[in-house]
Amino acid sequence: MNYIKKYGEYFCIILFSTLLFPAVLKYGSAFFTDLRYQEIIASEQYSVPAIATAVGISLLLPAAVWEFLRRNRISAADFFKANLPLAFLGVQYFLPPSFPLLIIFLILLSLSAGRTAALCKDVVLPDYGKKRTLAALCLIVILYAAFGAIQQYHSLNTLAMSWFDWGHFFECLYNFFHGKPFHLNLNGGSFLGSRFTPTLVLLLPVVATGSPFLFFFAGSLLVCSGAIFVFLIAKSGKASNSESFLWGIWYLLIPGITNMNLPLIDGPHEVFLLFPLILAAFYCAINKKIIPAVILILLSLGVRETIGIISAGYGFLLFINKKRKAGLLLFCLSLLYVVLTLKVLMPLFDPPVQGTYAHVGFYSHLGNNITEIALSPLLKADVFFSSLFNKHNLLFWCMLLLPFAALASNALLFLLPLLPEFVMVSVDRRFDTQTVLRHYQASILLVLIIATLWGLKRMREGKIHIPYKYLFSGLDSFDLCRGISGICMAAAFFSFFVFTQFPGLSATDPQRRSTDNGVITTWDDARPALERIKKLLPERASITAGPRLASMLIPQHDIHFKFAPDEKTLQDYVLIENFFSFYFPEDKLSRYLIQSPHWELLHQEFVDERSIQLFKRSAKPLKKEPPVRKMPQTLWEKAGQLIPLPLNDLEIRAVQTAHDTLRFGVRITKKRSNDAGFRIHLNFADGTEMKFFTSFCNGRFPADLAQTGDTFFFAVRFPAGKQITGCRVNVVELKSAVAPQ
């Protein structure tokens, strides 16, 4: 017994490190987590760095917790009992990684952390005073927002960020300074016709600078500033300064919040304004500051046309809490605002819409108009409920609810306002709505945050109606409030590592992509190429451009998106990004312009493995010949050494023509159905390597338009003095992009 008492703590550390190791290895370092498709993708399975990382985390985490418990006189037996949920993780050794198992891993890890925290009844957090603590949190918020802006700017410069949605907001505000408030070049109309967002004018001072970076920073700051109001709300619920500070950090770690601080796909969004407005309104309301609360609510209604549904939910909440007049008034006015906005105000700004809400198309499987969609649970019950209840949505709900469920469940009535928005997001036919990567769950997050903070307040007051004690079964003595708070904070902390696009973590990162061999690589910086292209464009030129390239050209140029091969819809300049499927079939347009006698290929750049082409309308018809040559078979056989390919429609030969140049020839041996790109890998005697990419005819003529026997040559320059020891050529099939249905 003395031996067990003496070494029991070390036994616990070794045991729980052993149980943690397989899960940490699979879900924290060795595998790539695709949050959009909810899949675990092998990337560098069980490499030495991955194993070292997993060993380090699985040793340090229990050791750190144990040191914390030792200071609070917790026995090894209590620590063992508190962490019994981790016993399941040992079976991860024998199970293939999957997204459902990842969810279970996080739930068990959070439960163990909460059970451990519940043992620390005598912990007294240091108190540095409200002003100092709040100042420290404000500094963290500013730094966190600045980091988010830097990452967004990098995403913009690597062509990972689309014009949708940030470009719309930036442009409609920037046009204020050109006498066209809320005007969009995309459709030549007012942005208020598609989204009723008059509160966006609060961002006019930022847009006046013309700086995308400052706009990114403002968007991130709006999201992160919610932490300050979470601190103030927690303080109003009688939490200490240090505990309120921890709740502010909890807010910043929520995956949905972190991903909106790092919106690497869409950039800043209108809904970001809701975080300071709604949370500040709630803070004012619970402190009986009614007039500021009403003003903030009115401003929030102008952020999004459907936000009135949330405020109507809070009206219903007031009504059933015996505040009948105030609740009924808020409920009726909110719904009236939504109806008037959708049916009257928005059509005034966009007459072609004629009273039809533009977003109805996202629910076309449920009905053709708002009334049919609202009645779909009755009219199309099978379609509605199959869209709502499925495996994909279930996993999405788990991702979303993990940091909240424990405490939010203690304020069930406060969850009522999220139900309509929760259903709307879940049955939306767009795949990306059901993920914590995007902004679609902003309203849901706000309701969950408020419910969690209210649940914390009720628990501190002893108002507990949920049998939480079963979560702590087996423990002799525990602090329930600290334990439940620990579950929430741990869930946010652990979810942060696997459900965010934070650079370097395992979740989906739009700045990275998986190559043919599973290796994650980073897109190249496109700024130098775009700067060279900008020099060829006159000031304020009218340009037809794709959604990512357009983001690099505002606010200097007039951007249009109508990508139809029609002379009437194209502007004088067309800027195309080929070989990367997204919103528009840009490569199809490239085929049209390459063959048309009315367009000149003015300039071309290769960035990463994408071809950026600038076309200019020609005043006179141009005589165009395919930039390929016919070559006799005997001459082709002397063009260089044949490189083996697993294809029967292409042949490639290579020959070194100078000390720093390798010439490649490509010949069509059979009619192709796709365009082709060529990824060249050169290995040198000194152990270094070089990569090069080009497309068929260097992007000036698609391979699928070429005929059998057509040949072209391209050269690859490498540093002088290097000795080539290996050359590998991979053919990349470049299929046409397909616009979404």
* Quaternary: single chain
Figure out the total of helices. Answer: 27
What's the end-to-end separation, in Å? 70 Å
On the 0-100 scale, what is the average pLDDT?
Answer: 85
Q: Mind summarizing the main beta sheet? A: 5 strands, mixed
Question: Given the C-alpha coordinates, what overall shape results?
Answer: globular
The low-confidence parts are 507-521, 737-741
Structural class call reads: alpha+beta
Radius of gyration: 29 Å
Note the main attributes of this structure.
single chain; 741 residues; five-stranded mixed β-sheet; five-stranded antiparallel β-sheet; 45% helix
Please summarize what this structure is.
The protein is α+β, with helices and mostly antiparallel strands.
Q: Can you give a write-up of this model?
A:
The protein has 741 residues and is an alpha+beta fold. It is 45% helix and 14% strand. It contains 27 helices and 19 strands. The strands form six sheets. Strands 8-7-9-11-10 form a five-stranded mixed β-sheet. A five-stranded antiparallel β-sheet has the order 12-18-15-14-13, with no helix packed on it. A hairpin with a 2-residue loop joins strand 14 (650-658) and strand 15. The longest helix is centred in the first third of the chain and has 28 residues, at 2-29. It is globular and about 90 Å long.
